[in-house]
Amino acid sequence: MNGLENGDYSLIVLTHPLDNKNYICQEFLNESLYLSVPPAHPLAPFKEISFSDLDGQSVLLLSHIGFWNEVCKQMIPESHLLFQDDPFVFNELTKMSALPNFKSDITMQRDSEEDNRILIPITDQEAHASYYAIYPKDKKQFYQPLLKQIKDLDWKKTKDLPKVFNNQ
Question: What is the pTM of this model?
Answer without folding.
Answer: 0.81
